[in-house]
Structures are given as structure tokens and as C-alpha cells.
Design a protein that fits this description.
The protein has helices at residues 5-25, 43-59, 74-81, 95-104, 140-149, 164-176, 188-197, 209-216, 264-277, 281-289, 299-320; strands spanning 32-36, 63-67, 89-94, 116-125, 128-132, 155-158, 181-184, 202-205, 220-225, 253-259, 292-294. By secondary structure, the chain is an alpha/beta fold. The protein folds into 2 domains: 29-124 and 252-320, 3-Layer(aba) Sandwich (D-Maltodextrin-Binding Protein, domain 2), CATH 3.40.190.150; 128-225, Periplasmic binding protein-like II (D-Maltodextrin-Binding Protein, domain 2, 3-Layer(aba) Sandwich), CATH 3.40.190.
Length: 325
């Protein structure tokens, strides 16, 4: 029997919804690729791998970690932005990628607010100021005095221009009127050993177990924490405010995003499973060892957080004069 024309569109629409629903019901039907835009071995990489293991169990498919380091997150982020929005490629996206890049780079192969589907926040970390024990200072104010008396003698390591470690150090230098030499690396797996060996003098970085153990052994010194309260694992280390540098903090959250255009049911599924994964027993030690605390958000809350931080840091970074091509 031939259908009347006025019913044809309704039937086709219904069939489309059934097909789409069936496809979503099968998600994920294959392994999910999770890109980490830094070298393997750093805190963000370790945190991602711990969460990915829990996510894989929850969704019943392997979650394959792929490290794509280079150009301060840009290589990995571009790969995800250009991927199919089918939920099978996601990205570890720290605040430095979603906020600071947009404010410091004049040209990027993606727009952090338009070219990604925001899934949610998974963790927050703290940041500390560490120096090698050979630097003859024991407090932040002594470091400032030493740097002023020895211009250009001190150096500091980061994972690249425009990242939070670089910007934190630049902010610190501007606030204290000092200047140190910048030595960029691809990731923490490279610059932490350099600090321990004494080839790097200064480092702004989360108080991960590798650093705190070296500080307790006397090979490094933790001068201050860029937090409102002292860090429990280093209770004798003052905050930056207690050290005479007030209002010094950086957004340290880590989010997960995918390519723009992901379907809302898939985004919600990933958000739901990630929110469970970050509080699973299996992630407790990796998080603690790398100075992370679980933190979750809805996709909409992540949008609001990015908007908030962009508005707050735009004038700050403009005053610092940090700009990349």
C-alpha cells in the first residue's frame, strides 16, 4: 500500500530516530582512544592512565592511551579537534590548554571554545615552588634577593611556552621583579630529572611524590605552595601568601573533551562514567602521589568555568606580555 505524502516525512524521521538510538545504544562498540598531549610519565599522563583503566572497565571496551606531545599541547589537541565526533577519540585538556593557550597564542589550529565537545572536569591539582638544594636560599624572599643580586644566573624548566608552569613562573617573576632563564621541555618526565640533577634551578610544579621525597631527603627544597592552605604532605612549607607573595594561584583543573559535534547521549555517558572513575579505589594512590584530588563537573559547568577563567586571566596575561604566534 502506498503511503500518503504527508506521512512520509514523519515516517522517515521516526526511522532516523530509531537508527540513531540503536547506534547510541551500542556505544562503545570498539576501543576508545584517549590522547594525552604531553610526553608519557608526567602527572597528567599518570592521572589519565589511572582514570582510563577504570573507564575501560565501566564501558566494557579498552581505552587506549596515546601520547602526542609537542608545541605545548597543540599537537595532541589538534589531532582530537580534527577527529570524527563519534566518541572514540577524547583528550586530556588541562586549564592551560583550554584557557591559557587561547589568551597567549595569536594563531591556533583550533578554537578551544568552538572546536571541542566539553565532557567534564576530572581532577584538580596544586602547585608548589621547588628549587635544587645547590641554590643558596631557603625562603621565597631569599630566592628573590638572590635572583636580583645574580641576574640571569638562575634558570627554570617548563613543559613549553604558554603552559601553566611557564605562566606561573612568569607571573611570579613579574610579581617579584626578577628574571630567570627559561628552559622548555616536552614534559615532566624530562624536566623533573633535570631539577633533581641540578641542571635546572627552579620549578613550579605540583608536589608529586617524586619531588616531595627528594625535598624530604634534602636534595630539593620546597619553598612555597601556591594554595590557600598548606599542603598536607609538606606541612612545614608555607603558602605563597605566607611567604610574602599574596593572591598567587592558578587554575589547576584537568578536563576531558572530545571533537566538536559529539552527540549529547555519548557526552553524558562519558561524563557519568568519568565521574565514577575518579573516585574509584584504583585511582586513589596515583592521584595522591601526583598531587591530584578528584573533581567533577557537568559539561555546562565546564563551559562556565572556562568562561570565568578566560575573563579573569585575560587582563593578567596581557599585563605579563606573554604572546605566541
Amino acid at each position: 500500500m502506498m503511503l500518503l505524502p504527508r506521512y512520509t516525512k514523519a515516517l522517515l524521521a521516526a526511522l532516523a530516530l530509531i537508527t540513531a538510538g540503536s547506534a547510541l545504544g551500542q556505544y562503545p562498540a570498539k576501543p576508545v582512544k584517549w590522547i594525552v598531549p604531553i610526553a608519557a610519565g608526567g602527572p597528567n599522563d599518570i592521572m589519565t592512565r589511572a582514570v582510563a583503566a577504570e573507564l575501560a572497565t565501566a564501558i566494557g571496551q579498552p581505552v587506549i592511551i596515546e601520547n602526542r606531545a609537542g608545541a605545548a599541547y597543540i599537537v595532541g589537541a589538534e589531532a582530537v579537534a580534527k577527529s570524527a565526533p563519534d566518541g572514540y577519540t577524547i583528550l586530556t585538556a588541562p586549564a592551560a590548554l583550554l584557557v591559557f593557550q587561547k589568551l597567549t597564542y595569536s594563531k591556533l589550529p583550533y578554537d578551544s571554545q568552538k572546536d571541542f565537545s566539553y565532557i567534564g572536569i576530572v581532577a584538580n591539582s596544586v602547585m608548589g615552588l621547588f628549587i635544587h638544594a645547590s641554590v643558596p636560599v631557603k625562603t621565597v624572599q631569599e630566592l628573590v634577593s638572590y635572583a636580583k643580586a645574580n641576574p640571569g644566573k638562575l634558570n627554570y624548566g617548563t613543559s613549553g611556552v604558554g603552559g601553566r608552569f611557564h605562566l606561573a613562573t612568569e607571573f611570579f617573576q613579574r610579581r617579584t621583579d626578577i628574571k630567570m632563564e627559561h628552559i622548555p621541555f616536552k614534559g615532566a618526565a624530562q624536566f623533573i630529572p633535570e631539577l633533581i640533577a641540578g641542571r635546572i634551578d627552579v620549578l613550579f610544579f605540583p608536589p608529586v611524590a617524586q619531588l616531595t621525597s627528594q625535598a624530604k631527603a634534602g636534595k630539593l627544597r620546597a619553598l612555597a605552595m601556591a594554595t590557600a592552605e598548606r599542603f598536607p604532605d609538606l606541612p612545614d612549607v608555607p603558602t605563597m601568601t605566607e611567604s610574602g607573595v599574596s593572591d598567587f594561584s592558578f587554575p589547576d583543573w584537568i578536563a576531558v573533551v572530545g571533537p566538536a559535534g559529539m552527540s549529547r547521549p555519548i557526552v553524558d555517558r562519558l561524563n557519568r562514567e568519568l565521574s565514577k572513575a575518579v573516585i574509584a579505589p584504583g585511582v586513589k594512590k596515583p592521584f595522591a602521589d601526583n598531587a591530584f584530588v578528584p573533581l567533577t563537573s557537568s559539561p555546562e559547568q565546564l563551559v562556565q568555568i572556562v568562561d570565568r577563567d578566560l575573563k579573569y586571566w585575560a587582563p593578567v596575561l596581557k599585563s605579563l606580555g606573554v604572546q605566541q604566534e
